[in-house]
Write a structure and sequence with these properties.
alpha/beta; Rossmann fold; about 20% strand; binds 4'-phosphopantetheine
Length: about 170
């Protein structure tokens, strides 16, 4: 497996500025980046997977991210490391906002390393995004608030017109 190919997995429901910041940083470190929308059965979703993919693609294009070749894909067929193995990725990249994220991510990183010798690299996003989470964005959007300070423009446009029907 290649240490030049990385996967950035997440629910991306919806993508936030914090996600985009992590994608931008990872793109400067690797040759190929797979931004992977993973179906998480433990979470009730706001957006269908296809919508999350479209929003990620638009946000990445509009964000003019430089560096790695970026592939946007989804995965609901099993283990995350199975996808990583399929695309020859030796690295998973996760953003860490706080100690809470460290506690949540550490067991997954260890399990993934045991399952497939895939390393997890934690990146620290810009502190400006430290308090942004998809769950807060979902709540603000559902209650009719302005989410534009927290999400890429493509997501803000979509939620502005579509949130009340979700
Ligand atoms: O954005 P999220 O919801 O915090 O992302 C969590 C995600 C999707 C990355 C995590 O739930 C995950 O890795 N799911 C894949 C299932 C899997 O491989 N589980 C076993 C090893 S942890």
């Amino acid at each position: 497996m290649s240490n030049r190919i990385a996967v950035v997995p997440g629910s991306f429901d919806p993508p936030t500025l914090g996600h985009l910041d992590v994608i931008r940083r990872a793109a400067s470190l690797y040759d190929q980046l797979h931004v992977l929308v993973v179906h998480n059965p433990g979470k009730e979703a706001m957006l269908p997977i296809a919508q999350r993919l479209a929003l990620l693609e638009q946000s990445i294009a509009e964000g003019e991210i430089e560096g790695a070749e970026i592939v946007v894909a989804s995965w609901s067929m099993g283990l995350l490391v199975d996808y990583a193995t399929d695309v020859d990725a030796g690295v998973l990249v996760k953003g860490i906002r706080s100690q809470v994220d460290v506690a949540y991510e550490t067991p997954m990183a260890i399990v993934n390393r045991h399952l497939a010798h895939v390393e997890t690299v934690f990146l620290l996003p810009d502190p400006a995004h430290a308090l942004v989470s998809s769950s807060l964005v979902r709540q603000v959007a559902a209650l009719g608030g302005d989410v534009s300070p927290f999400v890429p423009p493509a997501v803000a446009r979509f939620l502005d017109t579509g949130a009340r029907e979700l």
